Batch of 3 targets.
Target 1
Amino acid sequence: MKLELLRKLLGGFLLVSLCLLGLTKPFQTYLHIPNQITLFEGDKFNISKAAKVSAEVGSTGKSIDVFSQKHSLEIKANSVGKDEVFLELAGLPIKKVNVNVIKDFKVIPGGQSIGVKLNTLGVLVVGHHLVETKAGKLSPGEKAGIKVGDIITQINGEKIENMSDVAPIVEKAGEDGKKLNIVIQRDQEVINTTLNPEKDESEHTYKLGLYIRDSAAGIGTMTFVEPKSKKYGALGHVISDMDTKKAIVVEKGQILKSTVTSIEKGSNGKPGEKLARFSSDHEVIGDIQRNSSFGIFGRLDKNIMNGKYDRPMPIALSYQVKEGPAKILTVVDGSKVEEYDIEIVNTIPQKFPATKGMIIKITDPKLLEKTGGIVQGMSGSPIIQKGKIVGAVTHVFVNDPTSGYGVHIEWMLKEAGIDIYKKQEEKAS
């Protein structure tokens, strides 16, 4: 009976002790350590020691070492592989951290001003217009159910690539009194419809009653180049059509060198802008294969230099980015890439791809004097912190042009088709 009572008292004491331990600051501190961390070969990860804690490496113990410092525990990544770290506080196990060590990875930072030319998949419908017919004003395209933002990819079985492909087909069908069989892409859906072209009484030509466009052009900033594959990433955000506000679906595109001619300085409520022109020789330096919410991506045909950091530089994963001082590379005059001071005000250790990973603030007096902060055309400027590329500038805050968003480099690399994790898997297999 006494033994039974003693067991209950001991059990109750241990339960209360565990509950009290769980409420302590040291215990809470260790609970907030990620369950899984990824490190590049040679990297270190420090865990602040809020109390005396011991650590033991499990699994193989080959990929990492753990060093006990005065105020922290340091996990050092030695070689590619997977390991575990077990943390104990007051003799009780409180945390298991899975450590994934991947092959060291480097890219060359950009900063160069680039010109962008995009050709759409087919022709993009940007509006409806009324055709003056004998029966009155109407839009055959609208009547056929074609909407703004639709992409016309085929007419009567013929592939449509440029606006110039459309008029001859429409005119012939009108003269023959035949309907047009039209294939359109609407988001991810392919739609078939028919359309009767109508003769415009004032111009004496047959028309669709649609405003269409087949290309777009602009400027931006190069973010990175992977030296072996020549894959690149730029802009940090999607290129959308100015009228439909929808992402342009790329059939083919090119990037060119560009020169910044002047700056329209930004102010509260009015973002500024880089004014630039394509290089005089219009030399194409690469293609555009993808236009996504993380930027434009493709492959370079020619090497380009920034004059500041022309050697490969390591990258930082999203959780490794810290609040504090950093720098950006960008062009504000001519084609010279300069380095400017910024502050990373906030950063989110994202587990999944997302565009708004950082909030940044321009602090460099020279850049503020020249531009007022972040301006259009600066998107894609690489962000560098402690010798690593951490991301790119993406958007400016309209009501505060000194501040804006940044995207983590990790997600831009993924969009470029560069899988930093796959390298580790291939080596291990």
Target 2
Amino acid sequence: MEYIRVNKKNLNDEHICCAISNNNDVQVKSKKEWLSDRFDDGLVFLKSTERGKCFIEYIPAENAWNPIKADGYTYIDCLWVSGSFKGHGYSNDLLNECIKDSKEKGKKGLCILSSEKKKPFLADPKYLKYKGFKVCDEAENGIQLWYLPFDEGADKPQFKDCAKKPRITEQGYVLYYTNQCPFNGKYVPIVEKTAKDNGIPFKAIRITSKEDAQNAPTPVTTYALFYNGEYVTNEQMNDTKFLKLAGK
């Protein structure tokens, strides 16, 4: 399969979202705006020539939108291969290109978020283990930081203290999110309206800067839902899922 590196010059012409083809869709617009602002920070978005079926997105860990300490590493935002394209080695192609690029840039290794058992929107731990990744830190909510060092003597990446115990003081449902995930552009407003219509206390906090993301009270900043101060899930909600979660 052929791959394309998306940049500022070709961003408007390339299909970059997992399941959305319309460039005028709010989800696509929000994601492309987020990407455009990150390219200057060293973000790489490598995708297959197939429309949004396979891609990897990674960035120098110092510029990652996550509360981690991983200087000198590459942080993988997302490695995605859709259903019918799985099992053909495309994940390996993309990961190998990330490894090659990172080594050429003198990086210490790679790091990525996952968990002991597969969680929605996080990397598959079985695949990471197969590729030689190891767990280097874990938050109290079960979110793990995995790493693949290029030198076994390299320092291990860590979560910042603010992310190790994901709790907040606010009551009701509180959602922290970014526009890194395109689906948030559509579904966060839907959940906001659903909560309002059903009298459910809900507050959405969109993280809009690297500094805020790196000091967030959660390892996952793309989507982190809390209830009465306790972490609930990183799985994106639609109206039906949210009402079920809230017992409505």
Target 3
Amino acid sequence: MKVYERLEDFTTLSNAIVTTGTFDGVHFGHKKIISQLQSIATANKGETVVLTFHPHPRLVLFPDDNELRLLNTQEEKIALLRNLGVEHLVIIPFTKEFSRISSLEFVRSILVKQLGAKKLVIGHDHHFGRNREGSFEHLKEFGPLYGFDVEEIPVQDIDHVAVSSSKIRQALQSGNIEVANEYLGYAYSISGKVIKGQMRGRTIGFPTANIQVDEGRKLIPQIGVYAVRIQQGNHHYHGMMNIGNRPTVGGGALSIEVHIFDFEGSLYDQHIAVSFVGRIRNEQKFEHLEALKAQLVIDKTKALQLLTK
């Protein structure tokens, strides 16, 4: 996959099959769009182009909104789209100035003139251009004028629930990892650098790696204990993670700690990625460390059951 971080770096194609959107999560619904994009490209001997934006438009248009949390970092999104077999990924730097482009100008100058779009595939209820004025109906009107066809992919559902990035965020924020993973089509993950913590875990036989998450806007699932898979370089491990305030040892700021099964050594300053498999329990306060240790033994058994299921 070729990645272009400026529109100017892209050389216009003679037969571009294009889709556009934020693609946060690159979830089940997004994959359906990409699949159809590829089918059309194959049938018409074209090349697939995904046009997206960075940063997320809401972060630019509503900078004081501290509620929005993202499912993917930029690097994660690129990796997911690459794994889906996209040929060209164009990332437009999203600014307030860019947000003022009309829907007509977006179609005429960017999709048609710059990208060379001959066919456009969009998701259900897709809007674009200034104040989100552009819609599928607008695209159908513009198509004959500028020489492209447009196809709208209906909303994708799982168990009669429409899949969307918002619903995945809600599932993660309520700790429903299994539902989030089903909607995503892969295990949700976070990544970051291992930093020094209070080192209390090693005193009870459960040493942990404390993670400083890479991206401040990355969504952290609900406080609790989870079964997880860990990747560090080319090495893969099983483990369990606690997200919380450590009430048993006095509490404090939110911490993200992972205990890696059957691991010896130090990971300080190393970068690791952690994928969530299932939720084990809520965080709770114990009377003393021995009670916490007894619960962690139970947690490990449950985690292994989830990880080997």
